[in-house]
């Protein structure tokens, strides 16, 4: 199969129905999260998640964003703040599983894509009756998208919906700050008092004691590997990039239906930011589904240029490399 030959379709109703944790987190719980004993904040984060889940399970009335009355049972928002690979998505999915519906779970990018398809008023209408909206990987690098999701959170909290969010922040290198709680609270402004902030420290578990990404394969080896596995796809890297340009990102998950492994020929660095950001979204859907990736050409660790890694979307690219390298093992 070739991914670049596919033309996935998805209806507005399916967009809402598909707002659930990715398949790799179908059966996680707070009990299956194993805190790093060297990082006490991880065990504390598990407890904070349990407390918030209990709070969400009790249906709330609508609250005014600007009223003086506090939510006597606790705040309506929870923000898990930490670096790459410390288990924040595991904790967020565990929270989602722990509460009754109606509820929705999506990445920041999935939510912006959903609003783009449904329109903002329709997205608010469909989500405002939910108990919980869980937002994974809240992003602060695109002002327009950040404002859009911030408006969505504001409308939903006003309707009594609880909101839990995570974000990926840069590793503590070259003097860069590791945590982004101040940035998050600044962006949500009037809602900041509604959120509890919980830090989750620790190293990236995806690279804890594991080898580097395997080297790219020879073209013949890649072809043989793809042919040997049922459900595999194989595409020229350039063809895949062209396909991702014509397919709306909200359909990238549907693009991977029935796929057991992805093989890419002649991988090279993304030529520009537009291609790079599409590859980030595509990589997230691969990671959600735990689909292994094999390549020829250049290694996945070189998918984004040094210039890209120094730019405003640095966090997205680093997250994508972390996930794709894990899948390539």
Automatic annotation (TrEMBL):
GO CC terms in record: cytoplasm
UniProt entry keywords in alphabetical sequence: ATP-binding, Cell cycle, Cell division, Nucleotide-binding
One GO BP annotation of this record: cell division
Keyword ATP-binding: yes
Gene Ontology molecular functions: ATP binding; ATP hydrolysis activity
Coiled-coil ranges per UniProt: none
Presence of the UniProt keyword Cell cycle in the record: yes
Domain of life: Bacteria
Name of the molecule in the record: Cell division protein ZapE
């Amino acid at each position: 199969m070739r991914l670049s030959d596919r033309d996935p379709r998805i209806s507005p109703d399916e967009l809402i129905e598909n707002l659930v944790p990715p398949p790799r987190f179908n059966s996680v719980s707070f009990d299956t999260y194993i805190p790093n004993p060297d990082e006490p904040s991880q065990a504390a984060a598990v407890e904070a998640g349990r407390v918030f889940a209990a709070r969400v399970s009790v249906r709330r009335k609508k609250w005014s964003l600007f009223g003086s009355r506090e939510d006597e049972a606790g705040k309506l928002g929870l923000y898990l703040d930490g670096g790459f690979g410390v288990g924040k998505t595991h904790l967020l999915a565990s929270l989602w599983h722990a509460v009754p519906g109606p509820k929705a779970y999506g990445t920041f990018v999935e939510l912006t894509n959903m609003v783009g398809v449904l329109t903002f008023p329709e997205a608010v209408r469909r989500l405002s009756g939910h108990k919980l909206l869980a937002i994974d990987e809240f992003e602060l690098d695109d002002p327009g998208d950040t404002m859009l999701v911030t408006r969505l959170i504001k409308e939903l909290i006003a309707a009594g919906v609880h909101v839990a969010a995570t974000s990926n922040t840069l590793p503590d290198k070259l003097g860069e700050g590791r945590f982004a709680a101040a940035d998050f609270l600044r962006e949500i402004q009037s809602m900041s008092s509604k959120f509890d902030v919980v830090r989750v420290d620790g190293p990236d578990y995806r690279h804890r004691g594991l080898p580097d990404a395997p080297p790219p394969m020879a073209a013949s080896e890649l072809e043989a590997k793809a042919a040997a596995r049922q459900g595999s796809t194989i595409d020229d890297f350039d063809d895949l990039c062209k396909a991702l340009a014509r397919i709306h990102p909200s359909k990238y998950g549907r693009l991977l239906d029935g796929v057991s492994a992805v093989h890419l020929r002649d991988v090279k660095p993304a030529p520009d930011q537009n291609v790079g950001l599409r590859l980030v979204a595509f990589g997230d859907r691969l990671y959600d589904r735990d689909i292994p990736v094999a390549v020829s050409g250049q290694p996945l660790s070189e998918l984004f240029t040094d210039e890209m890694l120094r730019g405003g979307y640095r966090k997205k690219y680093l997250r994508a490399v972390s996930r794709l390298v894990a899948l390539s093992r």
